Amino acid sequence: MLYLFILYRKVVKIMKKLLVTDKYDGKKISKFILDTYPYLSYNVFNKALRQKDIKVNGKRINKDCTVFQRDEILVYISDDFLFPLNDLDIVFEDDNILIINKKVNIEVTGENSLTAMVHQKYADRPFLPMPCHRLDRNTTGLVLFAKNEDSLNILLEKFQKHEIKKFYLALVYGVPTPNKARLESFLFKDNKKAMVYISDIPKTGYQKIITSYSVLETYDNGTSLLEVEIETGKTHQIRAHLAHIGHPIIGDGKYGINSINKQFGFKYQQLHSYKLEFYFTSDSGILNYLNGKYFIKK
């Protein structure tokens, strides 16, 4: 992403350079931009069009138009409209850590991400808070940030040693049997297809994964609510593993069943990281006070 800083009407507008993907080939530019920036209102988008603050392949436009794969879109809209600071749902904060409840349709890292929003809010700090783990774009829930270098190093080590536990709530199709299980399988990540595949037996290129679940509630519509814990944190692990055992997450467009997703009307996977638990088995320096504590956001 290219950033150019332009002063215009007393508002700092940061130019965003976007490339249209095949998903939006032949779609309206409004669909592409509003999906890219879920916090941008339709009224502000239309105002940007009228002011010719949007370019397609170098040409300014003043009305909604169709875009195609590989078109280059330049957007001149203030970050205040794209990433409203008051939209950060801070669950806990002290001098060392920051826990935020991430909303749907936003990445943890990268351009236009939760981390970018955090860095904007804490821009005057000598150390910009850094995330210690990730969630999928459309998975909601708790994300832990470190507010200084010592905390970052400690927390990364604790995650590696599995001394910080993450628990999820997942709405799935059907009711798993048994009601509680610890699943061990093997996962292969296909970077070209942005997909992962699960095998019950070891294979070349596959890595072992462990996913535990407990059925919390069952519903008359044929779904159930699970609490899920992962001992290994691989890409799409929960989504793919639950689908592999025949209980895909409702709303999951990648590993779920389209006809079922349409039936329930959810656009995104119903997966929420609802609890972080600190279970330190070794010295944690300035973060020793967190041992035994947990944070919940349902």
Structural summary, described in words:
This protein folds into three domains: 78 residues, Roll (Structural Genomics Hypothetical 15.5 Kd Protein In mrcA-pckA Intergenic Region, Chain A), CATH 3.10.290; 77 residues, Pseudouridine synthase (2-Layer Sandwich); 108 residues, Pseudouridine synthase (2-Layer Sandwich), CATH 3.30.2350. The protein is an alpha+beta fold and 298 residues long. The protein has seven helices and 18 strands. It is globular, with a radius of gyration of 21 Å. 19% of the residues lie in helices and 35% in strands.
Q: What is the level-2 CATH architecture name of the largest domain?
A: 2-Layer Sandwich
**What does the main sheet amount to?**
11 strands, mixed
Tell me the name of the CATH homologous superfamily of the largest domain.
Pseudouridine synthase
CATH class category name of the largest domain? Alpha Beta
What letter string, H or E per element, gives the SSE order?
EEEHHEEEEHEEHEEHEEEEEHHEE
> What is the CATH third-level topology name of the largest domain?
Pseudouridine synthase
Structure class? alpha+beta
Q: Tell me the helix content.
A: 10-25%
Distance between the termini: 34 Å
Features of this protein?
18 strands; globular; Structural Genomics Hypothetical 15.5 Kd Protein In mrcA-pckA Intergenic Region, Chain A; Pseudouridine synthase; 11-stranded mixed β-sheet; 3 domains; disordered N terminus; 298 residues; alpha+beta
